[in-house]
Design goal:
With 165 residues, this protein is α/β, with parallel strands linked by helices. It has 7 helices and 5 strands, in the order βααβαβαβαααβ. α3 runs parallel beside α4 and α4 packs across α7.
């Protein structure tokens, strides 16, 4: 899928090699859990938020985990944009990309990257709801999605599953 240096070969002083960002309802018990397991089996120190409280603002511990990671993998799925939590997390990830040269890898899970880039389909609907609630961050979130959709990443629709017996 993508190459990540093993912890022993890395000179980084970061606590985590990889931070996983995802919409739990969409991928927690499927793609993301499989990705997390695969990374852990390769001794890649990975942060995943299994038990974070619900709410609008991301917690300080989550912000610290983002900052303390060498790479952020963002799993963009059908309902990713419905979550203010996910969108705020994405803003923080992109700040780390800009200020700390963090590597950011988008994975488009069962969604066309152009729908993310242009906020079409479910993303358009999500933003209509965010605007109804008078969110002041809508333009910032739109720009963040545009930016991440323009990064080199993986589109799950273009890869077939391999089953090894």
């Amino acid at each position: 899928m993508f190459a990540i240096a093993s912890p022993s070969s890395s000179s980084s002083s970061k606590k985590y090699d990889v931070f996983l960002s995802f919409r739990g309802e969409d991928t927690r018990r499927s793609f993301t859990s499989h990705l997390h397991t695969a990374l852990c089996l390769r001794d890649i120190e990975t942060y995943i938020d299994y038990e974070l409280p619900k709410g609008d603002d991301i917690s300080q511990s989550l912000i610290e985990a983002i900052h303390d990671s060498s790479i952020s993998v963002v799993v963009l799925s059908k309902n990713y944009a419905t979550s203010k939590w996910c969108l705020n997390e994405l803003l923080e990830i992109l700040r780390c990309k800009q200020h700390q040269a963090q590597i950011v890898v988008p994975i488009f899970h069962k969604i066309d990257p152009s729908n993310v880039r242009k906020q079409k389909a479910t993303y358009e609907k999500a933003f209509a709801e965010h605007l109804e609630k008078n969110s002041k961050k809508v333009e910032e979130w739109r720009q963040a999605l545009f930016e991440i959709a323009n990064l080199a990443g993986w589109d799950s629709c273009k890869y077939r599953s391999l089953f090894i017996l």
